[in-house]
Amino acid sequence: MGVEDLKVDYYALEDSERTLSTLKSEFDDIENRRDDTSGVWGHDGVKDAMDEFAGNMDYNRGKLSEKLTEVGGKIANTLETFRSADEELAKSFDKERA
Question: Which pick of 7, 20, 22, 27 has the fewest CB atoms within 10 Å?
Answer without folding.
Answer: 7
